[in-house]
UniProtKB/TrEMBL annotation:
Active site: residue positions: E69 (proton acceptor)
Protein name in UniProt: Diacylglycerol kinase
Record's GO cellular component terms: plasma membrane
Gene3D superfamilies recorded: 1.10.287.3610
Residue positions binding substrate: R12, E69
PROSITE patterns in the cross-refs: DAGK_PROKAR
């Protein structure tokens, strides 16, 4: 289907959003790490809401991890398509993409600790 050239075409946007959701559904169904990261993010957001901690940094950290996991999934699929046999450069590409997810996950953990530990500590301290 050819584009009509308008970035503001609602039908075009809706169609693109459908493709994006298909990619997210595929990653959720096929990637165990993505499922773990989705539910860890949901848990972090629920805890932040219950503790009345700032949601924005937690949500952004979760979005970064999930977005990079989707990019990692896409890159792995393209590398597997382009290089079905083992190749050192294919390994480099896959490892680097996985490394990006690892770094984002470590950063998200730090954000979670910085944002959630103080109100959690205050809440637990209020028991005594």
């Amino acid at each position: 289907m050819r584009s009509d050239g308008s970035a503001l075409n609602l039908r075009r946007w809706w169609r693109s959003a459908g493709f994006a959701w298909a990619g997210i559904r595929h990653a959720y169904r096929s990637q165990a790490n993505f499922r773990i990261e989705v539910w860890a993010g949901v848990l972090a957001l629920v805890v932040a809401a219950l503790l009345r901690a700032p949601l924005a940094p937690v949500a952004l950290a979760c979005a970064l991890v999930l977005g990079l996991e989707l990019v990692n999934t896409a890159l792995e699929a393209v590398v597997d398509l382009a290089s079905p046999e083992l190749h050192p450069l294919a390994k480099v590409a896959k490892d680097a993409a996985a490394g990006a997810v690892l770094i984002a996950s470590a950063g998200a953990l730090v954000v979670g600790l910085v944002v959630l530990l103080p109100p959690l500590w205050a809440w637990v301290g209020g028991w005594g």
